[in-house]
Amino acid sequence: MKPKVAFICVHNSCRSQMAEALGVMIGSAVFESYSAGTETKPQINQDAVRIIKDLYKIDMNETHTSKLIDDIPQADIVIKMGCNVVCPIMAHRHEEDWGLDDPTGKSDAEFIKTARIIEEKIKDLKKRIGNNEIDLSGEVVW
What does the UniProt keyword field contain (predicted)? Predict the structure, then answer.
């Protein structure tokens, strides 16, 4: 069974949504991708939607909604996007904080930069999971 990866941040509207979309595109052979937050937005960030569509031909408006942590399955791996406040807490076997700045309200160049960083981190995560470099055998922790 493939491990479940949850990309989390507070609002689940921008970075975590981009990571979920790229996780599905790049990593679906190795892991399942989900995203969530502690609060939701009426719609996901439309600048993020536009940039992901331009760069990767993925229309997040068709498949993504802003979700709460309780709306997704329990994750094996939790990736915090870089909340700069109190990040959401979720049970997991492995946790990372990618420390990404939120591009909301910034230029397209910032969104593109964020998307490319997420793409590289997803590729690295896929490689590490595939090579069993992440220990998922331990107990679930909070």
Answer: Arsenical resistance
Classified as helix, coil or strand, 129 is helix
Rounded to two decimals, the pTM is 0.95
How far is residue 24's CA from residue 30's CA, in Å, rounded to a whole number?
10
Specify the residue for token string 């793409």: 119
Residue 115 within any structural domain of the chain: yes
pLDDT 10s digits, 57-115: 999 999 999 999 999 999 999 999 986 656 667 888 999 999 999 999 999 999 999 99
52-60 long-range Cβ contacts below 8 angstroms, 24+ apart = 52/18, 52/21, 52/22, 52/115, 55/112, 55/115, 56/21, 56/22, 56/25, 56/115, 58/21, 58/22, 58/25, 60/17, 60/18, 60/21
Is 140 within a domain? no
Alpha carbon 47 to its chain centroid, in Å, reads 16
Helix (H, G, I), strand (E, B) or coil at 5: strand
Q: Do residues 142 and 78 touch, judged by C-beta distance below 8 A? A: no
* Domain that residue 103 falls in: 4-130
